[in-house]
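Lab meeting prep.
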Amino acid sequence: MIFLCSQYNPRSQVPSYLEVVDIAGLVRGASEGLGLGNEFLSHINAVDGIFHIVRVFDNVEVTHVEGNVDALRDLDIISSELRLKDIDHLEKFLEPIRRVSRADPTKRIESDIYEKALEWLKQGNDIRNGDWSTKEYELINDLLLLTSKPIIYIVNLSIEDYLRQKNKWLAKVKNWITEHSPDSVMMPVSVSFEQHLDALPEQERTAYLEENKSRSMIPKIVTTGFKALNLINFFTVGEDEVRAWVLRDGMTAPKAAGCIHTDFEKKFIRAEVMKYEDLKTLGSEAEVKNSGKYTTQGKAYVVEDGDILLIKHGAGGGGKKK
């Protein structure tokens, strides 16, 4: 965004964002209503993905609900509570389906898929780790089960451990994730470090990072979150506005146009495409065009992360620098 704004000097700039909601911690027995219980689980049910923060530092001023720091125990508790809640939800969901399927053979395939998912959970597995067919995935995904959501594990270190990138729990947590959630990402982060950094004036912040040969993890948390949710950014540029838009990875140019306005998708004609990296390397839009890297794409074009699009459409006449 900073580079694009330096190129076009827009009157306004609109970055994309990842909305993160801080939800109070989950305790042992939450699936049965203990602690915040169902309130917590109903909140988490509404999200698309989960940042699971795992504490691995000791601090007498920061109490732990279990009495002491044990990252593997905490991982087991959270994983188990989410799975138990999914089992409870799926069993209740299945009750009427079982009755109907006994009388209607056409419903048995659907019932069998849900039964398969329930058995998978009861065996101690998470839905996201299952090998599901397309039909199975579609049906199970509609249930918005907690263990179907992508998880990014944020290992919360002390400032000292973060700066030296060492902690006795890191390897153990990594091994746990490899065994229980192999497609998930682990990120060593220090919340205290980020809070300290955020409170510093810009010049002091830069000096502090250089002195400690470190960096903030916030940008990586955001980009990793986008990737986990299968999201990408595309840009629209011009003197009026430079804006980043969020799009599901694998979507076509008309779908990107629809992010801007539904009429643009309906009356899509073509998209003129420029790659962000090409613009940054070559230095100007004119040079991108001169190099032959400014292309015109039709309805089948799949938008890529970092694309800069000019959508041509028939809505209200003309196109838009989007």
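Slide two material, second protein:
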Amino acid sequence: MRFVWADFMEGRANLNQAKPKSRTSTRKKSLTLALFYCRSVPESSEIERQALDRKYGGSLRLFPIPCSGRLDPLHLLRALEEFADAAYLITCPEGACRYFEGNERARKRLNKSKDLIAMIGLERERLGMVMNEKDNPKGLGIIAGEILEQVKGLAPSPVFRKRQRPKEKPS
């Protein structure tokens, strides 16, 4: 078993490489979701992750983390800045975190991040968290599909709009 910090750093490396190929295509672009998830989520192995990559293509970018409590708000904000229209976090059930209070720590950090993006004019719905159920836990694929349906109503992120230069005044 590898040290969990190495897995977290691997996820950060994936975040650095997750830039889109092109945001300016002629066809309508679907929204891109950055999905950070605790490795304790059922059906979250590498095989299932690859199946989700094939199923959703560029609409879903997956980032496994050893514990949801390890997620820094900077990761969410950077995803929104670099490539994602929305960023969500999937945690283990409340009271079932193997690190005791990781999911509660993640909830507090997510709320702070929502406040930050609201201050700059983005919708709070661009960030979210899904806490898995304790009695009947859902797999990663099912939760990812539900989140994609939920964010479908969002408009594309204004962060990626083409910036227009101001017209020069004739002298």
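Talking points for slide two:
The longest strand covers residues 33-38.
Confidence is low (pLDDT under 50) at residues 1-5, 20-28.
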